[in-house]
Specification:
This protein is mainly α. The protein has one domain (6-91). The chain has four helices and three strands; from the N terminus they run αβααββα. The model has no long low-confidence stretch (mean pLDDT 87).
Length: 92
């Protein structure tokens, strides 16, 4: 996803390339001056993808974790979107 913001895109790249089942403490990843910006970039990433793109925060936004999206969930989403697109064809 292109954001037009170099910093946000670098965060997205990090999120895309991180290993599944890894947790990260934000204060260990990012300088204090950039923490809010980093958190906002991660929020944007999560809100832009189904299942949050496989990312979640802890309750106080100090850690992030990448999880594996179950194949069944992805298949269900794909089937739902296919059904939804077929319905649009018949209503237009």
């Amino acid at each position: 996803m292109r954001t037009g913001d170099e910093y946000t895109e670098s965060v997205f790249e990090f999120l895309d390339n991180a290993e599944v089942d890894k947790s990260f403490t934000i204060e260990n990843l990012v300088k204090a001056a950039n923490r809010e910006r980093f958190i906002e970039a991660v929020k944007l990433y999560i809100s832009s993808y189904a299942f949050g793109g496989g990312w979640e925060f802890n309750t106080d936004y100090t850690k992030i974790r990448k999880f594996e999206i179950p194949e069944e969930a992805l298949k269900g989403l794909w089937e739902y979107n296919l059904k939804k697109s077929k319905m649009k064809m018949f209503t237009h």
